[in-house]
């Protein structure tokens, strides 16, 4: 197994999953396999179903009698569990961050550190890339992507500049995008602005927010009573979705109660406050600095649950 991504908050994730050696677990973001390996090390007769849509991750999948590897997006979680004749699982783990491998591979286009093609696809078999987005979306849609998925300042101005630039020549590389953005964004905010723009494009290209909503909805259907779900996020958009769903069972975060005053929600929070990496871990792995970990367990409707989702 090639470890191309250092697993973040590994022990905290394992403690959150509370692995039963004979249980069934799902790692929906296999990547370099670090979290999956830790789960497998704790299993006896149990099973681990690992998902990853990236072909690069396939090379990291070990031949292990307790592992079922699924080369697909985790939004198909329930379908593939049924395919393998699994109705419920004891735990689900999701590390939603982009792997170090992706950031460091210049050919994939995930980082503005390289003058590379505007790709950003997690699944290389898909045709739609960041270049397609920038060259085909309307000005209104580009603005919406930048605002909604990156909370980008001056989104409208950037979108307008992109339209003007592509009328002369299509945008194909990081350098092309920089030539549009740099006159609009002050130099001192360059890296922060580019990070937000790249995040927005990547989320749109890969349908990341829709996939996360699908995962959360399906997790409430496939987790066994008291089964655990452990999710690590790296930006506020993801974290807000997870926080709201864990707290209320919906994405708005609005609490609903039944006739008897019981909160109608599929989860009970395990960690009252959000878990973040230690200073020591951040020093070892700077890319862990923005990680936020939330843990919940499947509850039974009608039971009294803790609704303090932390801060």
Structural class: alpha/beta
Helix content: 25-40%
Q: What is the residue-mean pLDDT, rounded to a whole number?
A: 89
Distance between the amino and carboxyl termini: 37 Å
Name the beta content range.
5-15%
Shape: globular
CATH class of the largest domain: Alpha Beta
Question: Can you lay out the helices and strands and say which pair or pack?
Answer:
Elements: H1 10-17, E1 24-27, H2 34-41, E2 47-51, H3 55-58, E3 67-70, H4 77-83, E4 89-95, H5 100-104, H6 130-136, H7 139-150, H8 155-168, H9 174-181, H10 190-206, H11 208-222, E5 223-233, H12 236-248, E6 267-269, H13 279-284, E7 292-298
Describe this structure in words.
The protein is an alpha/beta fold and 311 residues long. The protein has two domains: 10-100 and 208-298, Vaccinia Virus protein VP39 (Rossmann fold, 3-Layer(aba) Sandwich), CATH 3.40.50.150; 109-206, Orthogonal Bundle (DNA polymerase, domain 1). 40% of the residues lie in helices and 13% in strands. It has 13 helices and seven strands. It has helices at residues 10-17, 34-41, 55-58, 77-83, 100-104, 130-136, 139-150, 155-168, 174-181, 190-206, 208-222, 236-248, 279-284; strands spanning 24-27, 47-51, 67-70, 89-95, 223-233, 267-269, 292-298. Strands 3-2-1-4-5-7-6 form a seven-stranded mixed β-sheet, with helices on both faces. Helix 2 (34-41) links the parallel strand 1 (24-27) and strand 2. Helix 7 crosses helix 8 (155-168), helix 7 packs across helix 10 (190-206) and helix 11 (208-222) runs parallel beside helix 12. The longest helix has 17 residues, at 190-206. The chain is globular and about 60 Å long.
């Amino acid at each position: 197994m090639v470890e191309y991504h250092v697993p973040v908050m590994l022990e905290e994730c394992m403690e959150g999953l509370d692995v039963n050696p004979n249980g069934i677990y799902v790692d929906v973001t296999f990547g370099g396999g670090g979290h999956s390996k830790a789960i497998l090390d704790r299993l006896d007769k149990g099973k681990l179903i690992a998902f990853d849509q990236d072909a690069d991750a396939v090379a990291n999948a070990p031949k292990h009698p307790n592992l079922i590897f699924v080369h697909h997006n985790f939004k198909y979680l329930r379908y593939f569990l049924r395919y393998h004749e699994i109705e419920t699982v004891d735990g689900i783990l999701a590390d939603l961050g982009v792997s170090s491998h992706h950031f460091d591979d210049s050919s994939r286009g995930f980082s503005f550190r390289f003058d590379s093609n505007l790709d950003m696809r997690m699944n290389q078999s898909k045709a739609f890339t960041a270049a397609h987005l920038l060259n085909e979306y309307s000005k209104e849609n580009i603005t919406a992507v930048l605002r909604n998925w990156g909370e980008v300042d001056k989104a409208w101005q950037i979108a307008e500049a992109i339209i003007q630039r592509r009328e002369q020549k299509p945008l194909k590389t990081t350098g092309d995008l920089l030539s549009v953005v740099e006159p609009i964004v002050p130099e001192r905010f360059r890296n922060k602005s580019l990070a937000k723009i790249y995040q927005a494009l990547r989320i749109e290209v890969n349908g990341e927010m829709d996939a996360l909503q699908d995962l959360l909805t399906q997790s409430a259907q496939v987790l066994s009573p008291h089964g655990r779900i452990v999710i690590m996020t790296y930006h506020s958009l993801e974290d807000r979705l997870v926080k709201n769903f864990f707290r209320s069972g919906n994405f708005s975060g609005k609490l609903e109660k039944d006739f008897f005053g019981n909160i109608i929600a599929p989860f009970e929070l395990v960690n009252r406050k959000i878990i973040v990496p230690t200073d020591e871990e951040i020093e070892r792995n700077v890319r862990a600095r923005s990680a936020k970990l939330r843990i919940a367990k499947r509850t039974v409707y009608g039971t009294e649950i803790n609704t303090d989702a932390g801060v």
